[in-house]
Here is the input.
Amino acid sequence: MGLRIAIDTGGTFTDVVAINDATGAMTVVKTPSTPADPSVGLLNGVRRVLDEVGASDRDLNMLLHGSTVATNAVLEHKFSGLGLIVTRGFRHMIEVARQSVPDGYGNSFFWVKPPRLVPLHLVREVGGRMNFSGQELEALDEAATLQAVRELVEDGVSCIGVCLLHSYANDAHERRIGELIRENFPDVFVSLSSVVLPEYREYERAMTTLIDVLVKPYCRTYLNSAADKLRSQSGDIPFLIMQSNGGVVKHSSAGEKPVTMLLSGPAAGILGSIHMARLAGYKDILTIDVGGTSTDVAIVEDYAPMYTSASMVENYPVKTPMLDIVTVGSGGGSIAWIDAYGQLKVGPKSAGADPGPICYGRGGTQPTVTDAAITLGRLPSALIGGAIKLDAVAARAAYDKLGAKFGMTAEEVAAGALEIAAVNQVFGIRQVTTTRGRDPGAYAMVAFGGAGGLFAAEVADLLDVRTIVSPPSPGNLCAFGLHVSDVRRDYIRTLVRQQSTVDKQEILSAWEDLAQEGVRDISAEGIPAEKIKVRRVADVRYLGEGHEVQVDVPDGVTGLAAVEHMFKDFHRVHDQTFGFHYEGEQDVELVNLRVQAIGEQHRPQINADMTVKDAATPFGHRQAFWRSSGWVNCPLYKRTELAIDQRVSGPAIIEEYGSTVVVPASWTVRADAYGNLILEKNTD
Here is the structure.
């Protein structure tokens, strides 16, 4: 027996999906996450699924993993021991930052700067200077550099980021500093901005480099520990890590540049959504992944996810290629609370995995969304195949107490909590749709995560979305997405050139250099040449603009035609993004060239199950509450028993291992041959 195992570590549960290479049989399990040592949860997941299928350690032939270690290190503000080396005269770079404040604050009076990653006394300047074209104006002062590093180490610094002016154009000085640190202070972790982000804009480059070196000790320690334990159990098998760009790399490669591991779990969920939506026949989708602490949303057009090169992790800018995902603090564990103005709020604070919601019976004392759902009869008496018993009485008591403060019943305030949580999720979806000129009603929604089916119809009603796809084992879709991922590497080169004076051959040559580097690196991951392809992208703007848009070059457009397409298609992309263009009126400026090298991996085959079976009948009924109709006697169905194309009109509740799908009265649900549930809004 040969098994591929994919494991996605979340805040509450670790999700595991194993696929038998020979038969395509899929096994799904969940185990509790172990935040204190994530490698324990990882290996517990491996052991649990091997026991489930009756396999041994030696039957495992590949492990794919999406991890929250990098993201958690940032969210938990583990900034101690961090230092920064900059060019002389730029000591205050991260203090000054940018003149603008984050969106949503209106003006600077309502915004307080977040804690600095590096306090000013741990920033050191060194002599040496490059100009914007990469010419050396002043040699690196190596003696002063060593002294600066020595002072930082004496001050307790163990991780150093290096960000020198114009190192994207010439990295010689940064490389030498890296060598000096490794030679003289081998126990110090170091990240160079010319390796992490060879792109102009010093502030964002410095912040991304600091995030990289910040998470490096945690990620390397975790990945190396997990790899050693895995090797002792199953031999030297491939251990691949999901990146934020939606691709996987060897664990050793991920440890060298761990900033690429941020938001890796949600990225895998988008890949799984695309795979199942393709089977269901939908190419334009919204993805909504509702977990225990948050909801991640994204948009996909023509089976292609959106990418971004700039994101925020908490309040810190990170520039690394990643799938364009918006996260809001609204999940099953989100806490319902009353603010200083007496208003009911839900999230972003979460009960997490420990102690969890009140109904888990693990010491939780604050009412959560999950407590609201069981108070309303939307959830069964146990989750995860009976592994977690739910205390509906304790949950209702909490909402009785909360409702008394508003003069409302427990079910009324619980319904309000669910509605507020849904509105929070709608806000996230509108960030990827209406704010970018897209109508959410034109897309099908793929809802997954443990609580995705709980919210899907409520969110869809608010957005006028009329079709929802609930993939099989939705609580484990992020883990499944790891199975349908490819090996991906991203490369960038800043090359500021105006269209009116550009040397097109120079652009083409730079693109080709990046492409060749990508092919070499993907080949080193063990991917054969015929399975490697290259995607070319450019960051382009009108001359005088401060920010760029990304322009893709279609497959098959090569040579100088690729350069010409980039400049011409920019006007269309700009118009689609901002609603206007200046074609024929304003010069166009190239800023960055990008290449994504992709090594295609084997994908599990999901065949249609055309087994004919009788239409399922309810296995029971349960009272469920909706604000519009009150308590309703709701039929309960087992997802696995639904016949293909059997239609069930709401209100109804579909239950399965790891998830529950709620079908309101205005919706109808049917099952397809691939295990998807398709919810459709009634037209009458």
Remarks:
- The chain has six domains: 3-73+219-261, 76-215, 269-330+427-483, 334-420, 489-599, 620-681.
